[in-house]
Design goal:
By secondary structure, the protein is mostly helical. It is built from three helices and no strands. The longest helix has 34 residues, at 62-95. The model has no long low-confidence stretch (mean pLDDT 82).
Length: 96
């Protein structure tokens, strides 16, 4: 097995561990995000408002939502910059 592949697998495992560990450790955290503020603003306008649907999974705390959002952003930027690096490397090797 290639050394770089082992290194990447270890880094991926650490990234997943950093993401999942707080989900298991932090319970009942209180963090008001934009979703909560938007719901408060809607209720100020119309007290009888009923949501269209309810989520099938409710995270254990507000910080969990922030963690999942940050993970989604990191994953997306990782994919984008991997593609940019791949195309740049492909362009450099094509010139030589």
């Amino acid at each position: 097995m290639n050394v770089n592949l082992k290194y990447n697998i270890v880094l991926l495992f650490i990234a997943v561990l950093i993401t999942i560990l707080p989900l298991m450790v932090i319970r009942d955290s209180d963090f008001a995000g934009t979703d909560d503020r938007a719901m408060d603003a809607v209720h100020e306008i119309d007290n009888d408002f009923e949501p269209w649907f309810t989520p099938f999974w409710e995270p254990p705390g507000g910080e969990t939502e922030s963690l999942l959002f940050a993970f989604q952003a990191a994953l997306g930027s990782g994919v984008i910059f991997y593609c940019i690096g791949y195309l740049k490397g492909k362009n450099v090797t094509a010139k030589t």
